[in-house]
């Protein structure tokens, strides 16, 4: 009995020991698995810590422990080592590494901010390379500037803009707009751009307070047009006879195609009030360089006109139906009149002008095709002329009506001018012209301090039989001949009446003193 109990107790003990043994093995396996799982979690947390540290400079520590009976596990995360920077490879033979410059990125063209008063053509898509047509960009910039009073349209320096015929139309524009020209504008040279022909290239119409200023250039590239006008006949050309009967060579053109017969003026202002042009250069216009038509209150100063002396019909500044004009401190070189004053002009004051080559400063021609012409109160003084065809001139067509009066030419310095002083009431730029009795009357013309040298004839007064020139005043005339390549002549007068207020050189004995015995009176319709 006792032995059975002992055997039973032994069996139970053995069973219990085996159970403890199995449990112990299972527990160690679980602990080992848990340890491996902790190490994996520790590495993941450390990586996450480094990621966060790279964004925010904050320190973090992570602690994990596991306990079983007398075993204690305690681990701390170690900071991840900083990555080493990669160094560029060493260049051979101590050569400096070649570094490519960053590519130039052209910023997109954006219109100026709302409320701006400055409008740059580059912001409206202009290229300024002299090849792409920038006409549309100029039109867009003007449309924006036109809406803002006292705005400024900018043509920036160091760019060349190819611009076709363009009109800056202003009836609905705000006042006092500035056209700031510091770059270069060139005209197209293909005949297609001009169609059958246009009277202007760049045109400002019906504006109040418009300034064109700056140091830029308007280049008409007109040689392609000039060759079509050869030979060019001025009314006084018939008075100039070369000694050897030589004929000038025709102008050569860089273009082979034919341009339209109607030639454009480079820069025109029409129907505008308060116009100012200053600082700019206009060169090689197909016809007139700068024209004012139906304008009031005009100021031109410190500008340059530049074209060859044999470029036909290229007047420097042309005034027509324009009053209250001041032109000064400018240099004008062209193939026709440096300044031309046409019908409808009054209150014009011109001084400190350098003229030549060209055809001097002229009033006219007036009365063409039996029209009425009225010009009054014109002053031209302090002018230097060199190598011009004429000096100071009044020219009218037979058959016209109206009058030229109140004219002063003072302190004119001449250097080798062919015909320094001219009044021609028989002006004709054709081979022959019809004789007519009516004429534009010329009265009240004063010449004082006209000095220098001439190469053909010092004075040429050719006045109408029915409407003689009256009240012509001469003083301080000193003109000396310079023999060049032309036949030379003495002073000439026909139906010219007035006064010699001082001795003249050479003597102008042909001037008739006083007034004509009889003079035809113009009708009320013909009087200005």
Automatic annotation (TrEMBL):
Chief location bin: secreted
PANTHER family according to UniProt: PTHR31375
Annotated SMART domains: PbH1
Subcellular locations according to the entry: Secreted, Cell wall
Family: Belongs to the glycosyl hydrolase 28 family.
A Pfam family annotated for this UniProt entry: Glyco_hydro_28
Disordered as annotated region, ranges: 37-115
Pro residues composition-biased segments: 99-114
Record field: compositional bias (Basic residues): 55-87
Name this protein carries in UniProt: Polygalacturonase
Keyword rRNA-binding assigned: no
Alphabetical UniProt keywords: Cell wall, Cell wall biogenesis/degradation, Glycosidase, Hydrolase, Secreted
Active site: residue positions: 359
InterPro entries reported in the protein's UniProt record: Glyco_hydro_28 (IPR000743), PbH1 (IPR006626), Pectin_lyas_fold (IPR012334), Pectin_lyase_fold/virulence (IPR011050)
């Amino acid at each position: 009995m006792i032995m059975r109990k002992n055997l039973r107790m032994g069996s139970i003990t053995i069973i219990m020991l085996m159970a403890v043994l199995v449990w112990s093995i299972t527990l160690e396996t679980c602990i080992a698995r848990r340890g491996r799982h902790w190490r994996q979690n520790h590495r993941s947390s450390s990586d996450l810590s480094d990621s966060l540290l790279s964004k925010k400079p904050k320190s973090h520590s992570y602690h994990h422990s596991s306990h079983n009976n007398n075993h204690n596990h305690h681990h701390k995360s170690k900071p991840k080592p900083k990555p080493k920077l990669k160094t560029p490879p060493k260049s051979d033979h101590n050569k400096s590494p070649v570094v490519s410059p960053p590519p130039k990125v052209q910023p997109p063209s954006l219109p100026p901010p709302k409320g701006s008063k400055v409008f740059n053509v580059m912001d409206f898509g202009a290229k300024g390379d002299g090849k792409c047509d920038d006409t549309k960009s100029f039109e867009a910039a003007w449309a924006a500037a036109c809406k803002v009073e006292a705005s400024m349209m900018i043509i920036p320096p160091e760019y060349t803009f190819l611009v076709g015929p363009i009109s800056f139309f202003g009836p609905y524009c705000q006042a006092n707009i500035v056209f700031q020209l510091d770059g270069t504008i060139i005209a197209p040279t293909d005949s297609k751009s001009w169609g059958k022909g246009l009277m202007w290239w760049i045109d400002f119409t019906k504006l109040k307070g418009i300034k064109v200023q700056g140091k830029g250039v308007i280049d008409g590239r007109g040689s392609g047009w000039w060759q079509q006008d050869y030979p060019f006949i001025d009314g006084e050309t018939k008075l100039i006879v070369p000694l050897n009967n030589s004929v000038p060579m025709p102008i050569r053109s860089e273009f082979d195609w034919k341009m339209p017969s109607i030639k454009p003026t480079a820069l025109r202002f029409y129907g505008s009030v308060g116009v100012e042009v200053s600082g700019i250069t206009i060169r090689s216009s197909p016809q007139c360089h700068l024209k004012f038509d139906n304008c009031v209150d005009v100021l031109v100063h410190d500008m340059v006109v530049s074209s060859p002396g044999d470029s036909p019909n290229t007047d420097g500044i042309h005034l027509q139906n324009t009053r209250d004009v001041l032109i000064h401190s400018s240099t004008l070189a062209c193939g026709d009149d440096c300044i031309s004053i046409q019908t409808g002009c009054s209150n014009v004051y011109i001084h400190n002008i350098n003229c030549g080559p060209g055809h001097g400063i002229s009033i006219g021609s007036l009365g063409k095709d039996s029209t009425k012409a009225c010009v009054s109160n014109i002053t031209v003084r302090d002018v230097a002329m060199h190598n011009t065809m004429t000096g100071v001139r009044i020219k009218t067509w037979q058959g016209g009506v109206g009058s030229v009066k109140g004219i002063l030419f003072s302190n004119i310095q001449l250097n080798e001018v062919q015909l320094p002083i001219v009044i021609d009431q028989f002006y004709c730029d054709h081979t022959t012209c019809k004789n007519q009795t009516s004429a534009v009357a010329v009265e009240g013309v004063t010449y004082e301090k006209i000095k220098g040298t001439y190469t053909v004839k010092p004075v040429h007064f050719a006045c109408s039989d029915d409407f003689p020139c009256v009240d012509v005043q001469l003083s301080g005339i000193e003109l000396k001949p310079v023999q060049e390549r032309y036949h030379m002549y003495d002073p000439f007068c026909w139906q010219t009446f007035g006064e010699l207020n001082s001795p003249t050189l050479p003597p102008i004995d042909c001037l008739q003193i006083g007034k004509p015995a009889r003079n035809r009176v113009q009708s009320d319709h013909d009087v200005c």
